[in-house]
Amino acid sequence: MRGPVTFALWRALVVLLVLANIAFFAWTRGWLHSSLGTKPFDEREPQRLQRQIQPDAVELRSAAVPASGAARAPSSATATATATATARSGSGAVKTAPDLVASEAAASEAASAAAAASAVAMAAASAAAMADKPPIACLETGPVNEATVAALGRELTGMGVPAGGWSASAAARLGWWVYMGRYADDALTSRKSEELRRINVRHERARAPADLVPGLVLGQYATRESAEADLARLGGRGIRTARVIEVPAAPALQTVKLTTNDAALLTRLRTWRSAALGGQPLGVCATAVGTAASEPAKR
Hints:
Blueprint: H1 2-28, H2 33-36, H3 47-50, H4 74-85, H5 97-132, E1 137-144, H6 146-158, E2 166-170, E3 176-181, H7 186-198, E4 204-205, E5 215-221, H8 224-235, E6 243-246, E7 254-260, H9 263-271, E8 283-284
Antiparallel strand pairs: 1-7, 1-8, 2-7, 3-5, 3-6, 4-5
């Protein structure tokens, strides 16, 4: 008996579920509205429009913003959009958001163009000023003693260097030299000097102490390490007889330096040989004007 009863119960349950689905479908379609007086929530027109509150107050605003305003803070952009959306012109006409956005973009582009034009004009003016003003050149010699400074000063005045155009200052203690010599005579020293000049190695004749004259100084340094480093660099250029020596401290030595932007005077000075310096020319400053020296301890 249990089998037929169970089957009947399941069949009744299935029929009830089918009827319930049919009733629900009819209710959702609104077919039972006349008999039951109720219907489901309907999202179709015109019911949605009837539920709107003050639809005439709705405004459509453009989401476009000018490129220059992309970096503005969100709060600032929102406040600006809210204020400008209801702004009125002097004639009383309402300016829409797209009109205000376009005018703001035009103003921003005009300001950017003006700034760019100003920068170009300033760069051109600076280039013209630099072209009109010759670059400043710097020449120096030393360390030399006070008597040599005095004699050199008289020579520079005779060359046309104005008063105050050169200066003498206490020389730094450069107790390590890259040195070639001591040679037997001045003739051999001159030949060695010419060989160095041909390969563009800066040097000068040693003037003191007496046991190093005649000889050639290829560099003066504050430390032995810097002297050894430069000697290795010179060895790579084929100089084999130079060596590093320590030089006793000399009293009251000075460095003479002059700067000028007079092209004619600079040409004369570059070809000039000073009698006070034993026929040697002035050298280019180790520290160029307006720049840092690549080897601050070397002269």
